[in-house]
Amino acid sequence: MSRQNHGQVCYLQIPAQSIERSAGFYEAVFGWMVERPHPSFEAPGMIGQWVTDRQPAGEGGVIFWILVEDIEATLRDAQDAGAQILKTAYPDGGERLLGVIRDPAGNEVGVAQLVAP
Fold first, then answer.
1. Residue 2 domain-assigned?
2. Residue 41 sits in which domain range?
3. What does each of the 117 residues of the chain score in pLDDT, given as a tens digit?
4. pTM of the predicted model as reported, rounded to 2 decimal places
5. Distance between CA 92 and CA 23 in Å, rounded?
6. 54-68: burial string, b at 16+ Cβ within 10 Å, e else
7. Is residue 6 part of a domain?
8. CB count, 10 Å around CB of 74?
9. What is the rounded CA–CA span in Å between residue 72 and residue 70?
């Protein structure tokens, strides 16, 4: 992992019904490195793990946003990998496009693409 800065989110625990299914989803859609057989992952600038002792973060609460290069392709890939599309790509200011999915475990996850002004 790269250098960490004060205030940076650095570790994430993601609720999962099936660790293998969730690991496969994030690996296929976002390219996260999965440490099998452990429930751990490494994503750009962050590490974490999938946990089965908490309920999925559905409606309400914090949403974490994952930066992607092509939001439309990512939304298609996510749906093909078992996610439900909650919000298709929409503009947020003039700097980004946002979309929201529900991952296979039921967590709401945001995807964001930066766009040139």
1. no
2. 11-114
3. 556 776 788 899 999 999 999 999 999 999 999 999 999 999 998 999 999 999 988 777 889 999 999 999 999 999 999 999 999 999 998 899 999 999 999 999 999 999 976
4. 0.89
5. 29
6. eebbeeeeeeeebeb
7. no
8. 22
9. 6
